[in-house]
Amino acid sequence: MANLLLDMITTSAILFLTSAGLLVVFGVMKIINFAHAAFITVGGYAAFVAHEIGLPPLLAPLFAFAVGAALGAVAEWVIVRRLYARPLDAILATWGLGLILGQLVVLGFGRGVQFVPPPVQGTVAVLDTEYSLYRMLLILIAIAVAICFTALLNGTRLGLSTRAVIMNEELAQGLGINSSRVRLITFAIGCALAALAGALLTPLTSVDPLMGLPYLIGAFMLVMVSSGSLPALAVACVVLGGLQAIISTYFGSVLGGLTIAVFAAIALRLRPEGFARA
Amino acid sequence: MKHRKSTMFLAASAAFLAGAAQADDPIKIGVPVGLSGANSVVAPSVVQSAELAVAQINEAGGLLGRPVELVVADDGSGAAGAQRAFDSLIFSDQVDALISMQTSAARNAGLPILSRGNVPYIYTSFYEGGSCHPNMFVNAWVPEQQVPPVVDHFQAEYGAETYFLIGSDYSFGRGMLEFTREYIEAGGGEVVGEEYLPMDGTDWAPILSNLRSSGADAVITSTAGGAPNVTLTRQMRGSGVDIPYANLAVDEGTAGDMGDVATGIYISASYITGIESDANAAFLAAMAEHFGDDLSTPNELSVPQYEGILAYAAAVEANGSTETAGIIEALAEVSVDGPRGTIVMDHQRHAPLTMYLGRVVDGGDVELVTEFDAVSPGEQCPDL
């Protein structure tokens, strides 16, 4: 039972980390960044490169965050900026961007599987069981990311401008807020969070050119039921992630894999605003 | 006897006529292989070993005085690509034989085209067993050969009675584990859990929790190669599972790359690079010399490809021509002395193989635990 509880919490934490970046971009810019999966992959490879050049394992996620931010800023500047008025075209463009990033990764590193040694190994005694130490750490990291982002949004001038742009972009522009700068920074942070998640996943998974793809659909569903709100995303991750762990445990992982998509659809049917406050 | 003599005479004169018409025309061997898609990681090593086999045959004067040429086509690791590859190799390049390692989906899609084109086909990939075609021979393992060494060893060495099986949700994963379950139960053991994760699934945690609470004596896994395998192994080690663990889908190279997390894993294979034989040493040296820095490490999928081409060469020499019916008769009889030992595909189009049970030791090397001679493939194609 303790094991199931821990599975539920850690699954939620992983879902939160892998969908936070997508939510940030959707919340501010009202576009879905379909290159999200590719940025998760980029983060995994950034961790691999960090290991190759001898950075300490603790710095690997930060390195990935920086790489993701830089690439995200360039992508916004070159591609996404032109498409704010055309959200459907933005889907196409970001999907294409994802394909290009994936192929660049293949060109640079090959199709094969790469390995990053995990920073911590083994288990830790929690409740009345032994549980993977790294998965326990992911809970703390997910909470830390949530706190940092909330603080950024509510405690800084950039956050104030961002919230103004979210509420009413024209009015914010009228007040002298440079909304295109806000968008650039937001997109960069969204991509950076995806890359951070990719680096954090490396101890649990392999690093390969498609490593981000399995997380995209889940992240997309979770963002859809959260209406761009970070607290709502946290709630959605806990509820749907917990359900996924329960169903996987008792009915098999094949059905477990359908959980998020099915229950997200049900949630939206019952309550169009999903887990967000109306 | 008289009848046999006259057919031999006919075959010989046909070969003579054909030889006269095309003395310098190369004998073409088609290799439909997954240069893109799931098999793209292993495909380069398969192509390299095919290239070495052909180079060695040509250095020794070719076959029946004709040079041998390799035609490689990408099958995309799947059914649609395989249909295109088989079509173009058989009807446009007019190859004399197909010899290749492919996914089961690609092989199955290609077989109807093989019937139309009527060329011999040597399948060089291990697979889930039971695929039969009059023109097809298989020189790699089936579950009947790979699974028993693992289970027998676990029972003898650890007294394991209860087993937990984990796989990827696709035909090879399920096929392997279904056979494993039958084999365990036939030997008096018990399977206390059998769970599958979808191919694109990444979170093994609930399955691993069930594994831990099942109290099984040993765990056997059969996932898709590459990412799912690495993901499962890492998460299994992270969750503190320390019962005997056999991985039916990991190859020596991947196990080595995984490093510490792979330590202690049992693997069962018909080829490991550490086989101590003159043939294997000569093969590894020739590969290293031929490809230098570009060498892709020979493995369980590339070595049968090398031996498959040698088998075809022996069949052509024995038959005296490349004519299909004779080649198919000869392929069931010729023996090849290759890196894996002496191999004859005389068991319903499949081959008895020496199987090696290895264990990954610290540093990623595979240590040979024990070997099982001439493991029979069992009843694969009773109608052929």
What keywords describe this structure?
heterodimer; A: 278 residues; mainly alpha; two-stranded antiparallel ribbon; B: 384 residues; alpha/beta; 4-stranded parallel sheet; 12 helices; 14 strands; 43% helix; globular
Gyration radius from CA atoms of chain A, angstroms: 18 Å
3D shape of chain A: globular
Biggest contact: A-B, 40 and 35 residues
Protein structure class of chain A: mainly alpha
Describe the structure concisely for a colleague.
The complex is a heterodimer of chains A (278) and B (384). With 278 residues, chain A is mainly alpha-helical.
Description:
The complex is a heterodimer of chains A (278) and B (384). In chain A, a hairpin with a 2-residue loop joins strand 1 and strand 2. Chain A is globular. The longest helix of chain A is centred in the first third of the chain and has 28 residues. In chain A, helix 1 packs antiparallel against helix 8 and helix 6 crosses helix 8. By secondary structure, chain A is mainly α. Chain A starts with a helix and ends in an 8-residue tail after the last helix. A two-stranded antiparallel ribbon of chain A has the order 1-2. Chain A contains 12 helices and 2 strands. Chain B is built from 12 helices and 14 strands. In chain B, helix 2 runs parallel beside helix 11. Chain B is globular and about 70 Å long. The relative contact order of chain B is 0.14. About 4% of the residues of chain B have low confidence. At the A-B interface, helix 1, strand 2, helix 5, helix 9 and helix 10 of A face strand 7, helix 7, helix 8 and helix 9 of B.
